[in-house]
Structures are given as C-alpha cells and as structure tokens.
Amino acid sequence: MTQKPRSRWVQRLMQLGTAVFFAVLLLLCWKAWRMGLFRSLDTLQAFVASYEVGAPLIFVVLQVLQILMAFIPGGLLLSGGVVIFGPWLGLLYNCLGTLLGSSLNFWLAKRWGQPLVHHLLEDATREKYLGWLEQGKKFDRLFAVAILLPFFPDDALCLIAGLSPMGWQRFLTLLALKIPSIALYSIIYATAGLIL
C-alpha cells in the first residue's frame, strides 16, 4: 500500500527544527570557545561536573532527542559521552539514552501507528523498510541483524518494529544487541575526536 508524501507542514517543521538546532549549537559552541572549554579537556570536564547530577541527566535527554530527531548528530554525542564522563560512565549514559530513545520510537509507533511513522520517516526509507513487515516472522530476524550492523537506520527500524506484531519483551531483547555497537561507536568516535 503506497502512502501519500509527507505533508508540507511536517517537512517545514523538520527543516525549522534542524535550523534552530544548528543555530543553538553554533551559539553554544561560540560560548564554550569563549569560556575556554575547547582548549582543555580538564576545563570541559570541570564545567560539566559543576552541573553535578544534572549533567548526566541532560546528556541522556540529549541522547533520547537525537534518536527522535534525525538532524541531531549521534556520533557527536557518542564521542562526547565518553570524552566528558570517562569510558565507563560515558558508555553507560550513551547506552541509557540510546536505548530509551529507541524504546520511545517503538512505543510511539505502537501507540499512533502508520500515520505517525508516515510523517516521521522520509518516503524512501519508509517504503523500503515497511516492505520488511511483509516478511512476517522473518521481520524479527531482519530487525536483529540490522540492529547489529552499521549503516542501517536503527531509529527508523525501531519505528517500523512498532508497526509489527513484535511485543515489548522481544523488542527489548533484540534491542540489547545494540549495546556492543554503541560501545564500539563510542570508542571509535571518542578516539577519532581525541586524535583530531
């Protein structure tokens, strides 16, 4: 069944969201540069630590938002978590935010169904992965493999999974497969960031 293209207001809202996000990001980067946060990792870590419990909470919320809003760069947050909070806490916060965001995508699709998914996903992505639902019970296996491998749109697939008969227990079990890849991405992004 073919769907109508996403409505213009949704596209404009996403474009506006992207523009606002990058404007705020530029402003925050400028302020951070003025405060000297980019010149010293110790200064950056001390600044984050000054927010105490609020810092991890804000970070996890940002991770959840980057799952829900494709225009937020996930790699930046994955590397930031490990660099700012250290390897173990950074990985914990990366996993927590990513898994919560993915679960929220699944729940949203379960709750509001195809109309919401239709508005949230690009037409090509939606049509490509909606076809997986026609595979019946094979969908779970396709989903598990896609979660494990890079280059698949995990966020979109969690929305599509919400349209399948898959239950919460199965979804969370398969989603746990994502933890090793989050760890690997965190380390790679953080290492690349430290080298650069």
> How many H/I helices?
10
If you compute it from the alpha carbons, what radius of gyration comes out, rounded to the nearest whole angstrom? 18 Å
- Cα shape: globular
Helix content: over 70%
Name the beta content range: under 5%
**What letter string, H or E per element, gives the SSE order?**
HHHHHHHHHH
Mean of the pLDDT scores? 82
Domain count: 1
Structural class: mainly alpha
Which regions are unreliable across 5 or more consecutive residues at pLDDT < 50?
A: none
Tally of DSSP β-strands:
0
Largest sheet: none
* Cα end-to-end separation: 47 Å
Short description:
The chain is built from ten helices and no strands. It is an all-alpha fold and 196 residues long.
Tell me what you see in this structure:
With 196 residues, this protein is an all-alpha fold. It has one domain. It contains ten helices and no strands. It has helices at 8-34, 41-49, 54-68, 74-85, 87-120, 123-130, 138-148, 154-163, 168-175, 178-195. The radius of gyration is 18 Å and the shape is globular.
